[in-house]
Amino acid sequence: MTFIQVAVPVPLRQLFTYQHTRSLNSGVRVEVPFGPRTLVGVVVGTQDPADIDNIDKIKPLNRVIDNEPVIAPVLLKMAHWLWQYYHHAPGEVMHAMLPVPLRKGEAATPSAQRYLQLSDEGRQTDSDTLTRAPKQHACFMALKHGQLLAVEARKQYSPSAVKSLLQKALIEEVDQVPEFTPFGYLAQMQIGQTPVPDKEQAVAIAALNQQHNKFVISLLEGVTGSGKTEVYLQAIAPLLEAKQQVLILVPEIGLTPQTVARFEKRFSIPVGVLHSQLTDAARLLVWQRARAGELGIVIGTRSAIFTPFKHLGMIIVDEEHDESFKQQDGLRYHARDLAAMRAKEHRIPLLLGSATPALESLNNALTGRYTHLQLTRRAGGAQSTQQHLLDARDQPFHYGITEGLLTIMRQHVNAGNQVLVFVNRRGFAPAMLCHHCGETVMCKRCDKPYTVHKAQNRLQCHHCAGTRAMPRQCEACHSHELVTAGTGTEQVEQGLARLFPDAKQVRIDSDTVRGKDKLHNTLDAINRQEYQILVGTQILSKGHHFPHVTLVAVLDCDGALFSADFRAAEKLAQLVTQLAGRAGRASKPGEMWLQTHNPHHPLLQDLVNNGYSHFARHALLERKAAALPPFISQIIIRAEATDSALAFGFLQQCKTQLLMPIDNIEGPSVGGPFPCLMEKRQGRYRFMLVCNHAKRGPLHATLRRALPYMQALPEGAKVRWSVDIDPTDF
Ligand code: ADP
Ligand code: ZN
Ligand code: ZN
């Protein structure tokens, strides 16, 4: 009899022991009884019978699912690191690493899938016959390049388009077990046209060429449009030629078909794409193809860091500063940190790229822990965007825009160029209040003002997504005079339509671009110059290329100057710099104007006059002086409950545990319980403890010792609480 340790998917920070007739490889899935349920767990080791109490109570496992481990040894090491470092339940970590069908116990080896392909008739048919049905046409054209998974095709081109094509007998369905061959064996890889790198690019590429099969982390700090992607392309070419695979992580919204097309076009090898909109079956297929070595490149968002590979040669994290790399619930991991951990296990290089590096990464580059590669000029002779502050004090405003800014906008529109207007919130206005008594209409679940959405004629809470009908009168004094305060994208769009009746405009925020295709279609239309004015939120700052935009106007950045979050300045500087990077990318020079009531604010002055790289180095000095991350380690314990005293009291008891001295270890400082920045959300009051320590080791040791006591607190069952290691927001 062997005693097997299993990571079972339950929210408990421990492993469970089962008995079996023989030993099993770590990484193999097993079905186990757990109370009244049957769960799919992952084997992580065996246990010495001498270490087991109540040995006759140990249950046998129900069934062994896999012959071969589904989690390879390097990934098991990563799993182990994850549950140790993030103090998370091992079974939940394992599940997070696996595609959904495998969590449910389905076979890991490819099973028959339904594919679509052209029929004999389809192959002889001219696609022009379908031009009146654009979706059928697009699907048909895609199938000319090869088979598609039937579920994917239905999702992408609509079920009715597929149905029509089947009825016309232009396409057919086939069931096949996919066979995978490692890339580069059946067909030789061809490298497409490659521009001559400029001096700085050449230096970076040469440095990266020295790193093959070694664990080295590099930061490529390159201004927007300096040719970072071109460096990635040229740096990975020799690795792909050596049949090594490359993983590229990109931000949530940065994964555009253009990015993927650029890699596909350069290298004639299969490229896999992973993002949140894929079906479970499609994700599993990418997982299998990468594992078998068929995919040369996998491009994906945060969770793509868990993809198995046959022979991984390099990891790239593009726009490494982006907040979407940090998971903000459940297993709160940072994909950039995981990438470093993974590169170390594989003994391969990790390349981080950004125009606005996170202060954490920049500090590692400046202190020599990372290789620092810099691109200081835009590629292909494009000029950098001139940045200016616009003093909004005492100026007349129209829909949130000063007269001065309107004049500048007119010049650009009249010159036939495009103008990008950044507004930091969506909706019509961030608040509605009573003109008579001043009462604001509040979301009672979050204690925050509702945002006015005129288009839907409703109020919406941006914190809990709750909505309500537009009120007719004030709840306090019954006055009918309700007015809006502040400006959101919807209002700016309406205002600009009146101010620029001849310019066509488009609004881009999460209300107007639901679904990724909508966004891509809008971006294409912008680049065809169908619009002259673009109004939008954050979405506009993410890596898109707008060759005809020559002016970027930022309507309000004052809020971020006075935030209680010490990262607000860094985030604002990244946003502003990324926005500036959208303008003047082609032959046309660009400018950016920041409208502010604080034109002499040192942060804005530094950013506008000296640029992000100067700002960031200065900000690091400030963080050091204030003993803030990255110069110290931080852990936040959050708790929320409908009864605020419960959440507060629970954290107070946790604090007592965290402050309990441990031999030979200097304890952390524990601040709080403080209310979170969002004090109330969805009817729950939220508090946090902030634990700081100059060193990571003692901080984690303290938490490790305190956690079992915290878990045993009876109040813990009545509140929702969580541990956030290296938090990035409050
Ligand atoms: P980034 O990733 O830094 O935004 P890209 O790699 O997308 O920059 O480059 C910006 C533009 O400059 C692209 O159109 C790219 O094709 C072009 N480019 C990059 N490197 C060169 C080069 N060495 N010579 C000519 N054009 C280049
Ligand atoms: Zn009132
Ligand atoms: Zn709310």
Automatic annotation (TrEMBL):
Zn(2+) 1 binds at residues 434, 437, 474, 477. Its cofactor is Zn(2+). Gene3D superfamilies: P-loop containing nucleotide triphosphate hydrolases (3.40.50.300), PriA, 3(prime) DNA-binding domain (3.40.1440.60). Binds 2 zinc ions per subunit. GO terms for biological process: DNA recombination; DNA replication initiation; DNA replication, synthesis of primer; double-strand break repair. InterPro entries: DEAD/DEAH_box_helicase_dom (IPR011545), Helicase_ATP-bd (IPR014001), Helicase_C-like (IPR001650), P-loop_NTPase (IPR027417), PriA (IPR005259), PriA_3primeBD (IPR041222), PriA_3primeBD_sf (IPR042115), PriA_C (IPR041236). Keywords: ATP-binding, DNA replication, DNA-binding, Helicase, Hydrolase, Isomerase, Metal-binding, Nucleotide-binding, Primosome, Zinc. Its EC number is 5.6.2.4. One of its GO terms (cellular component) is primosome complex. It catalyses: ATP + H2O = ADP + phosphate + H(+); Couples ATP hydrolysis with the unwinding of duplex DNA by translocating in the 3'-5' direction. Zn(2+) 2 binds at residues 443, 446, 461, 464. GO terms for molecular function: 3'-5' DNA helicase activity; ATP binding; DNA binding; hydrolase activity; zinc ion binding. Pfam families: DEAD, Helicase_C, PriA_3primeBD, PriA_C, Zn_ribbon_PriA. Component of the replication restart primosome. NCBIfam families: priA, PRK05580.1-1, PRK05580.1-4. Initiates the restart of stalled replication forks, which reloads the replicative helicase on sites other than the origin of replication. Recognizes and binds to abandoned replication forks and remodels them to uncover a helicase loading site. Promotes assembly of the primosome at these replication forks. Belongs to the helicase family. PriA subfamily. This is Replication restart protein PriA. It comes from Alteromonas profundi.
